[in-house]
Amino acid sequence: MSADDTTALPDQPLYLTVADELDLLIAQGQLAAGERLPSVRELSQRRRLSATTALAALRALERRGVVEARPQSGYYVRQRPRRLPEPATSRPPAAAKPVTVSSIAARLLAASNDPDIIGFGAAIPEADWYPVATLQRHAAQAARRHSQMIGEYSPFFGLPALRHQIARRYAELGVAVDEDEVVITNGCMEALNLALRTVAAPGAVIAVESPTYYGLLQLIESQGMKALEIPTHARDGLSVDALAAALAGPEGAQIRACVVTPAFANPLGSLMPERARQALVRLCERHRVALIEDDIYGELDFAGQRPIPVRHWDRSGSVLLCGSFSKSLAPGARIGWLLAGRHRDAVRMRKFTTSAGTALIYQHALSDYLRTQAYARHLARLRRLCANNVARYADAVEQHFPAGTRVSRPAGGFVLWVELPRGTDTLALYERALFRRINFAPGPLFSASGRYRHCLRLNCGRQWTPEVAAALQALGRLVETG
Ligand SMILES: Cc1ncc(COP(=O)(O)O)c(C=O)c1O
User: What is the mean pLDDT of residues 242-249?
Assistant: First the structure.
């Protein structure tokens, strides 16, 4: 790879980009522990860098503790501790439950807004992982160009230019999407809300991954629906066999919808294999159960091979795909979408009665941005940052958490699911951690049945700093001392 291939961004010196790339190779095991890195001369020749830049990159890796310098010999990948095992497939109860996770969620979100607390709680990366200045420029241009915008209603279903860009991106993946069925929403949360209310009524049973995103559980709670937790594996995601068994079971006839995040689910980071994704679509079709796909993390695969959404295999228009730019590009823009398939008219009506539109300024800014090549470059950098940080946080867990801990090994996204030794109570731990100004997401938040009390989710979206390293060490000690 030459320096020209390196996706250096204006806000990051080139040597750090080179260090990030080497770091990723190490995190992925392509450069193994004990292996020698290219010398300064090799690195500068291979990538057409100056010797100063190459040396700075190697020194940055040394400061991160990833490599060590051996006198007269060069830089070597440091030995890593043995990898912790992954969590096993979950075993939730077989009956659907009314949901009550709101009070824990409210505390977590309040702590997440406190700048003095180290934020391993909400799944939010650093603002400077996003192209903030460029997007602001597009927003300012949009405000100038459409100077009457604030005096007018926006189109209810979204700006046609943005709907076109979203449909185009799916088309590039081979997923046929008609622009007409794209409804712009206020984030993925509104998309999930519209999708759920379109296909299910209060009292309905909704099949979900276990553990699953607490925002979804809160939505189910607020709609008076019940959640049926389906066994889910930390690597392979929702068990299609277990869903099939639930559909054939006593509550099967009441299951109206299945909500699933096939790519890099929150909190497990799991990725459903392609065959399982296809089988899931067929199963839901057979049982006439609506399939709501949450695709919010789809762009954040570490390997740069974006998984194909399940919507691709949908023949009957029954998949409702919910997405958003909140994780991949612009959390503050609150721009998401719902690909409504055959439910388009019902979804449009609900969008009107829910929020009657989405503010125009960032729709313009994002659709202008998406017309450039910048998004691909930004995503390449974001994926690297996610992969590096997840690897580094996982290393810290291995180093500092007690024996018996298990940790997920996501291939995308930026959260880790940590299973602590049985008997650990993460709700009690939460109080002690907050007292030390450390935030994390306790396990029961991710279950309708109060499970996962011995688990927690770590947001790995905070830049790696000595404070972050110290906070993870302190958290490990808190777990150990019970
Ligand atoms: C799986 C999942 N779906 C949906 C959302 C909500 O997304 P948004 O911020 O776009 O509303 C989140 C946010 O954390 C999430 O993790």
Answer: 96
